[in-house]
Structures are given as structure tokens and as C-alpha cells.
Automatic annotation (TrEMBL), chain A:
Coiled coil: none
Pfam family, one: SPL
Keywords, sorted A to Z: Lyase
Presence of the UniProt keyword Nucleotide-binding in the record: no
InterPro entries (alphabetical): SPL
GO molecular function terms noted in the UniProt entry: 4 iron, 4 sulfur cluster binding; DNA photolyase activity; S-adenosyl-L-methionine binding
Protein name (database record): Spore photoproduct lyase
Automatic annotation (TrEMBL), chain B:
Superkingdom to which the source organism belongs: Bacteria
InterPro entries for the chain: Nucleoside_phosphorylase_sf
Protein name in the entry: Nucleoside phosphorylase
Organism per entry: Geotoga petraea
Gene Ontology biological-process entries: nucleoside metabolic process
One GO molecular-function entry: catalytic activity
Length: 333, 261
């Protein structure tokens, strides 16, 4: 198939109104061999369900655009708020370079092309406004993507960290499946940053989390961040019910706690595979991944494993985790 | 299958595949096992009606592609006989743009196209733009029947303005062999994604069933949807094929049950 495809980023679409933006110019300078196509509105390329997300994923393009509204969103009820009443998330990049076969992005967006919103000053303006309304805020940055892997395209993380540090009442989580996050975070003041990693058994990473770092690579990266004196968040999510999964996840837990420094684990969240049912239906139109064709039950429009299956498993996993980490540091979704 | 839309017999000459003319009252349509070609006539209205017509007639599958191949003009005469793939098409009257999906590589240089309501003079043209009379309509209508990544437009530069078109200047030996080979491969690769073999099996099995043609078509669509949803359909298909009815009423009731399921 690869001989038939254009290489990734062979074309870059640029909204005319951001053609002279400093971030746009910086990104384009890194893709001198790419053909630039100027457009009026990113939705002309991105929108429309007459596209095949999975096929496009093999040859992603970049769309550089200006976000016009909805800069900061209320945190999703499908994500843990870690006991923060003011939970928000923000993305200035849509879509991911990784190719996880269960990812909700394939059901949420019509296109797998990467959209980069470069008017980050407006994001920062909205964050400032929100910071005045709440005592403490938990902000998840880059939820609709894996932000650290875009650092070579543009180092957004540094700019966001600088902004958050100006506002003392925001803790910003950045979550990744990469093995480069320690490089991204080095030499930065990250007192207000919660570095977080998603972890799964290597067997499931190979099967379902294509193009991501393998488990060992992620653990090494986590350890390096811990060695900087920083507490990390771990996320065993999504838990996939397949085969002898309890055994696999217990082996994963063993590996995590044998390798990492327990003192520098801030907390750990666990959650079963879950997805809005409407996204699941869209995902099935273009994906053959067996994981999305399970017999899910739908409660409040969210498709997930049947409650009975989850209850048995979760109790077993929590009991096992308790050997290594205090119960109050385990968050379940 | 590759659906090819050309606006004139001269443009059809570039398609070197062996095609047989089929009997059709409304359009000149040619085919072989891999191509269905329609000569639409010049202009947006003709190309729109021809695409709708050919798609209604043959009902393209998800892995079928559509290609518009035709002449275009450009300002610089040095580009006559050059072939370009179109990446952007603009409607001159609406002043609106549409963008082709560029997932696949055809190994051709790219250009933007402007679709005009009438042939254009050289002094009205902008540099580096191509001009035709069908492109925008072709793309707009094709998107109703095909996924975006399966729509292609290739233009051969025939002239540099309204009064300069002369078939004698055009090299008719240019074939699109390599392009067609790529298109066939693209379509074949997508068979698996869209479960085309399974769909063909459903269609061939349904021939044996005791339903009317219209009912069979609707049941096939339903079963295909189940298939894409990851549902197991072999038992249901088996039951449908073997089902016998005492009368039409019974048959129609059963049909309704399947469609509503």
C-alpha cells in the first residue's frame, strides 16, 4: 500500500489569514519539500464525512489554521477530574500521529489530517479569563492528540508551560504514549505541570497502539522524569478485556512498580475502554479493529464493557495495585 | 472499477484500454471489466447529469474510483501537451474552492483548476492556473457517490486560450497506462477495507432467494451494513436464502422484519 501513497505531510494546507503568523512560518520552514496549498477555511479540507479516516491516516497532511471559538472546554465526564471541581481541557492540535486502533478520534472527526491552530495567544487569553473565575484549575492540554510528539514540528509545550507558570492556580496535565517526554520537559520550570503517561501491557501496545513507544521505552522516559525530582501520573487506560487480560495487567503492574520510583508516582488512574456510542458507530464505518466490535453495553450514550465484567476485574486490579500504592492515589473511571 | 468521465470523443482517445460500447439511449458509455467510461458532453450541467446517471445505472461500490480526464487551457503556451493532476478546483462564478484528497500519489505534477462558464481568452487567465468548464461540477457531484480519496482529476493542456484550441497541436499518443495501473492497485487495496469480497458473496447468494429484485437490493444493503458493523451474518443470510413463502403477503412480512431489524 505504501507505494501508492503520498508520504505523510507531502502537502500542507495553510489558511490565508495565518500565512504570516510566526508559528506558521516556523512550521513551514521544517517542511521545505512539502507543497503548500493556501485555503480560506480549514473546514473546507477537514470537514465532510465523505472521507475515510483510516485510509487518510496512512498519509496525513497538516492543516495550519486559526481557531475562531471554543478555546477551552469543560472537562469530559468520561475522563477523571482527580477530585478537581474545575476541570477543563484545551487543544490547539487536532488529531494524532499515533494510530491507536481504539481511539475515539476516528469516530469524532471526519478526517485524520492534523489541524494545528496557531493563534495560541487567544487560547492563552481564554485561560487567563478562566483562571480568574476559579481558585484552582485542573487543565488537560492536548487531549485530542499526543502533544509531545509534535515538539519537532513546533515546540508548543514550552509556550504553554510559560503561560501556566504566570497563572499560579492552574495545574496542567500533559499525557503521552511517547518515549521523548523527558527531553521535552528538561530545562523547563514544570512546577505546575503534571506529566502523565498512558500504559498498557506490551502485548496490547503491539496489537492496538500502533506507532507508539513500546512499554519499556515509556517506562525509561518516565524514570528519567522522576529522576528530575518530578512526580508523575500513570494511566492504565483503556483496560482492554481480551484473553487472559487480568494476568496481563497484573504483570504490567508488577513491571511498573519494579522499575519506577514509588515515591515519585503522584497518582494512578485506571479505566476500561469507553467511547460515546455515536463515535463508535462512526469508527465502525472505516475500522476493522476487533476491539471496537465487542458486545458493549450503552449507558447514557457511552458504550463500554458490561458492568458485571468490569466490576469483577476492577476489584481484582485495585486489590493488586494496593500492594504497591495507597488506595487514595488510585482513581477509577 | 474505475469510472471515467470525459467530455468529448477526442478526450476518450487518451484512454487506451479496450472498451466496448454499451447500448444506452442517453449517453455514450463504454466498458470493460475494470472501466466504465461515459462521454458527458461539455459543461457543468452535462458532467453533473452524466455522473448521476452512470452512478444510478451501475451503483459504484465503496472501493470504486472516479476519474475526470480532459483538456484544459493555461496561460503559457509552453505547457501544451503537459499533463497535470488537479489538487484544487475553483468555481469562477461562485468564487468558491474545493480541495481534492491527496492521500494517493499518481506521480504527476499538480496544479489548481478554475472552472469557467465559457471558454476563456488568454488575457483573462492567471499564471499557473488551468481552466476548464467541468471540473468543479465533476468534483462536487462525485463527492455524493464516492469517498473523497477515490476522486481524481487529470488535465491535459490543449491550448492557451479560446481561439487557440487545435487538435493538431495535441499529442494523442499520450496514454495513461501507468496512471491506470496505479488506480487499479488503489481500488484493489481498498477491497479489504470495504469488505468487497464479502459483499460480492452476499450478492451472489441472494440471487437464489425468493424475493423481488427491489427487495433483494434492499436486503443486500442491510446485510452489508450489518457486515460493516461487525455483525455475524452467515446464519441470517442462510436463513434468507432458504426461506420459502406460501404467498406474497408472507414474503413481504418477512422482508419488513429484516429491513426493520
Amino acid at each position: 500500500m505504501s507505494k501508492l501513497l503520498n508520504r505523510s505531510f507531502s502537502h500542507i494546507y495553510v489558511e490565508k489569514q495565518v500565512a504570516n503568523n510566526y508559528i506558521t512560518k516556523n512550521i513551514l520552514s521544517k517542511f521545505k519539500d512539502s507543497k503548500v496549498i493556501y485555503i480560506d477555511d480549514y473546514k473546507e479540507v477537514f470537514s465532510g464525512f465523505d472521507q475515510n479516516f483510516s485510509i487518510q491516516k496512512q498519509s496525513q497532511k497538516i492543516i495550519i489554521a486559526e481557531k475562531k471559538d471554543n478555546f477551552i472546554y469543560q472537562g469530559s465526564k468520561m475522563c477523571h477530574d482527580f477530585n478537581n471541581s474545575a476541570f477543563f481541557y484545551a487543544n490547539n492540535i487536532i488529531n494524532c500521529l499515533f494510530d491507536c486502533k481504539y481511539c475515539y478520534l476516528g469516530g469524532m472527526y471526519p478526517s485524520s489530517n492534523i489541524v494545528v491552530f496557531v493563534n495560541i495567544e487567544e487560547f492563552f487569553y481564554e485561560i487567563e479569563k478562566i483562571s480568574k473565575s476559579y481558585k484552582n484549575i485542573y487543565l488537560s492540554y492536548g487531549y485530542d492528540t499526543d502533544i509531545p510528539i509534535f515538539e519537532n514540528i513546533y515546540p508548543f509545550i514550552g509556550e504553554w508551560i510559560n503561560k501556566i507558570n504566570e497563572l499560579s492556580n492552574i495545574k496542567m496535565e500533559i499525557r503521552t504514549k511517547s518515549n521523548i517526554f523527558h527531553n521535552v520537559l528538561s530545562n523547563k520550570n514544570i512546577d505546575n505541570v503534571i506529566p502523565a503517561w498512558t500504559l498498557n501491557p506490551q502485548k496490547f501496545i503491539e496489537k492496538y497502539e500502533k506507532k507508539t513507544a513500546n512499554l519499556d521505552e515509556r517506562l525509561v522516559s518516565i524514570k528519567k522524569v522522576q529522576d528530575m525530582g518530578i512526580k508523575v501520573r500513570l494511566s492504565i487506560d483503556p483496560i482492554i478485556i481480551e484473553g487472559d487480560f487480568l494476568k496481563e495487567y497484573k504483570l504490567l503492574i508488577d513491571k511498573i512498580f519494579n522499575f519506577l520510583n514509588h515515591e515519585f508516582i503522584r497518582d494512578l488512574s485506571i479505566g476500561f475502554f469507553r467511547i460515546p456510542n455515536v463515535y463508535l458507530k462512526n469508527l465502525k464505518k472505516h475500522s476493522n479493529s476487533p476491539i471496537i466490535f465487542n458486545n458493549f453495553e450503552v449507558i447514557d450514550s457511552i458504550a463500554t464493557y458490561p458492568l458485571k465484567e468490569k466490576e469483577t476485574a476492577i476489584n481484582s486490579l485495585i486489590n493488586y495495585l494496593n500492594r504497591f500504592i495507597e488506595r487514595e492515589k488510585i482513581f477509577i473511571i | 472499477m474505475i469510472y471515467v468521465v470525459v467530455s468529448s470523443k477526442q478526450e476518450k482517445r487518451f484512454i487506451k484500454e479496450n472498451l466496448v460500447k454499451i447500448k444506452d439511449y442517453f449517453f455514450d458509455i463504454y466498458e470493460n471489466t475494470k472501466i466504465k467510461l461515459i462521454i458527458s458532453g461539455i459543461g457543468a450541467y452535462n458532467v453533473s447529469s452524466s455522473i448521476s446517471y452512470i452512478c444510478r445505472l451501475f451503483e459504484p461500490q465503496k472501493n470504486d474510483l472516479i476519474l475526470n480526464y480532459g483538456f484544459a487551457a493555461t496561460k503559457e503556451i509552453k505547457y501544451v501537451n503537459n499533463i497535470f493532476r488537479i489538487n484544487t478546483v475553483k468555481d469562477f462564478c461562485l468564487n468558491k474552492n474545493m480541495y481534492f484528497d491527496l492521500t494517493y500519489d499518481l506521480g504527476l505534477q499538480e496544479r489548481s483548476l478554475v472552472t469557467m462558464p465559457k471558454p476563456v481568452e488568454n488575457n483573462e487567465m492567471e499564471k499557473n492556473m488551468l481552466y476548464d468548464m467541468e471540473g468543479y461540477a465533476f468534483y462536487q457531484i462525485s463527492r455524493k457517490f464516492f469517498d473523497r480519496q477515490n476522486i481524481f482529476m487529470i488535465k491535459k493542456i490543449s491550448d492557451n486560450g479560446k481561439n487557440n484550441f487545435d487538435l493538431k497541436n495535441i499529442d494523442l499518443n499520450d496514454g495513461l497506462d501507468k496512471t491506470f495501473e496505479k488506480l487499479y492497485n488503489i481500488s484493489d487495496e481498498q477491497e479489504k477495507i470495504y469488505k468487497i469480497k464479502e459483499l460480492k458473496y452476499i450478492k451472489s447468494s441472494m440471487i437464489k432467494s425468493n424475493f423481488t429484485k427491489v427487495q433483494k437490493d434492499l436486503i443486500i444493503k442491510k446485510l452489508y451494513q450489518f457486515l460493516l458493523d461487525g455483525k455475524e451474518i452467515n446464519n441470517l443470510l442462510d436463513e434468507i436464502i432458504k426461506k420459502e413463502f406460501n404467498n406474497k403477503r408472507e414474503r413481504n412480512c418477512y422482508f419488513e422484519q429484516i429491513i426493520k431489524s
